[in-house]
Write a structure and sequence with these properties.
alpha+beta, eight-stranded antiparallel sheet, about 30% strand, globular
Length: about 230
């Protein structure tokens, strides 16, 4: 292989690395400014314990070498918020048996509820969901055929899912950008497989807030009594 070609490849890699580092620094500054404007703390340090704080959120249990970074935390309209980027690794082998490491990054926002919750999982419906539905392993269907086509919903308690995802909430979710949403017993997380810019972090929080704000009065009363 010509030396000139090898040198050109090395130079391209160096340029890409410098550009990537500058873009990451620029994004980090934007997140720092946004966090400050919302009264949130910000730290870029790695934190490997977020998955321990939220053991029911499967997205935080993927792969190995898991940690959060660019963490923003504090009070958001009377609710505790934690927003962050997340990293994990997976491994594969090439045709020669050599192990290859793959780095994955995504962003998430977690909002604490002021009332008790029950487990619930909502995400955009995909192609394989339609295949599993054909074999009878379907998710929860709702009155809105459009919502049922576009969202995959699972819950241990189907009644809870219907109470939370009523007509107004379905309309809200159909109008909003798509995220995966999961409830544990006291928090909700919104995420997808990308790293968020400032606006997307804010939209993720607004999505969770919008669901909480649309809880029916009878449900809020019931949850408070159970809590």
């Amino acid at each position: 292989m010509p030396v000139v070609f090898i040198a050109a490849v090395i130079i391209i890699f160096i340029i890409l690395a410098i550009f990537g580092a500058r873009q990451a620094a620029k994004r980090r500054q934007a997140l720092l400014a946004w966090a400050g404007s919302k009264g949130l703390s910000f730290t870029e340090s790695k934190n490997g314990h977020v998955e321990d704080q939220f053991p029911e959120f499967g997205c935080l249990k993927q792969g190995s070498d898991r940690y959060a970074y660019n963490m923003m935390e504090g009070d958001w309209s009377g609710k505790r918020i934690l927003a962050f980027d997340y990293h994990y690794e997976t491994h594969s082998r090439d045709s020669k048996g050599r192990t290859q490491t793959h780095h994955h990054h995504f962003s998430a926002a977690i909002l604490r509820s002021v009332i008790p919750l029950k487990p619930l999982f909502i995400r955009p419906e995909g192609f394989f969901d339609k295949i599993t539905e054909f074999f009878g392993m379907d998710d929860i269907d709702f009155e809105s055929a459009e919502f049922s086509r576009k969202f995959y919903v699972k819950a241990e308690d189907r009644r809870w899912a219907y109470d939370v995802i009523h007509t107004r909430t379905m309309e809200f979710l159909l109008e909003m950008p798509r995220f995966t949403i999961q409830f544990d017993r006291s928090h909700a997380i919104a995420y997808d497989d990308s790293t968020f810019d400032v606006q997307k972090f804010e939209t993720a929080v607004q999505l969770i807030e919008g669901i909480f704000d649309r809880f029916p009065d009878y449900l809020v009363k019931q949850l408070k009594e159970e809590g």
